[in-house]
Give the backbone structure.
Amino acid sequence: MESIIDVFSYFIDIRFQFFVLIGATAGLFVGAIPGLSVTMATALLVSITYSWNALDAMATIMGVFVVGVFSGAISAILINIPGAPSSVVTTLDGYPLAKKGRSYEALKYATVYSFIGTTFGILVLWVIAKPISNVALKFTPMDSFLICLFGLATVGTLTSKSFSKGLMSAMIGLILSMIGIDSVMGTPRLTFGIQDLQAGIGTVPALVGLFGFAEVLTVISEGNLTAQVAKVEKNLINTRNMLKYFPQSIYYAAIGTFVGALPGAGGPVAAFLAYGQATKITKNPTAPFGEGAVEGIVASETANNACIGGALIPMLTLAIPGDAVTAIILSVFYVHGLQPGPMFIQTNPEMFHVILAGGLIGAIWVLILGLGLGPKISKIINVPKRLLLPVVTVLCVIGSFSGNNRMFDVGLMFAFGILGFFMRRLEYPVAPLTLALVLGGTMDANFRRAISLASSESNKLLALFGRPITIVLLVLTIFVLVSNLPFLRNKEKKVFD
């Protein structure tokens, strides 16, 4: 009961509401413009909110996260270009519906069911985060190392067509995370005599480069995006018809929350799975799927927004981000001296309540901004890239410099931007590198701690891997790695073909 009062007390906190609104408004515009992304916006916010107090920073970032994921549907419906990867599935039925002159209806369905999906995911986070933390409290250092390794292996599996490319990306991130002063020996490691690297790779310039400047380079290389924006003509929609898909939406939200909790899966995977289920369980769709079926929009938008709560579950309880955005949010915690993990909810209940309140209030702003400004945002979607990209570049430079006031960090940002650009061109996923960069230090410390503790035992192997939780994590990690070996994947394809 006390937890409920604490969470809902933020609903009447004007200052908190203001910062969520700032983030929500930024998320609405950034998410709706093709070529930008909620991931990039969150990365830039890390640098902007660096000097803020943790409460204001998290309120703003939750607003961006929640509304930014939704607003990708606006451009998906109006111009057939998803504003975010998680909105790709929305284009299948959203744009055909808009071409029929029903764009307002498509936007309204996307808005209402994005609200439902987000609310469901945040409530699930509220209910199950503490039980998961209680289990995680029993983790040994080896368990913590293995859960991070499992997360990296899973990200490599789900974020790339090539498993080897996913693992290669993670390996690059792990190597980069080792740069700096060795925490045990106290000697420089992989610094190559560069004094500025002794403090390690700064998280802020790395993330801003990978998701901000790399996005600029990608858009420039692809040329201007030109598209015909569908007209938005307001028409009345029966509320009963709008809500008749609510029972199915709970099923899609459950899919989205579960997929979101899997490291690296994220909104695109959830949306595709939910869409596939919609085609199976819907007997009489309003139109054939792919030709303007409202049911397709409901499935996609409910699932990808439910991922928000799901992705926060492993981040808060195990310190393992569920997707690229939560990897960036994890860095926000570290920047503000917070330590996510099994003890987080017990030691920082206020910040847990801030995240819950920010998510729920953000969902409300989805409704308000989506229904109020969503239909009117079409004029902004086609903003000339020649005006937009210089602004984003300046923000990247300012953001990377402001953390430590070092030009070296600006150079790092450019370097990571170029790295991120070429990784995308060569189809190497950036998410595993990001996750490894954030988790590398934790993995290093836990592995060395586990070895140190086992060195005094008579049976070192049993001391390292003899506990039931450790065995389960080890088996899961080995299974993910082995099942993705090329010859086994080829056999699997032959069986299913």
The chain has 23 helices and two strands. The longest strand covers residues 180-181.
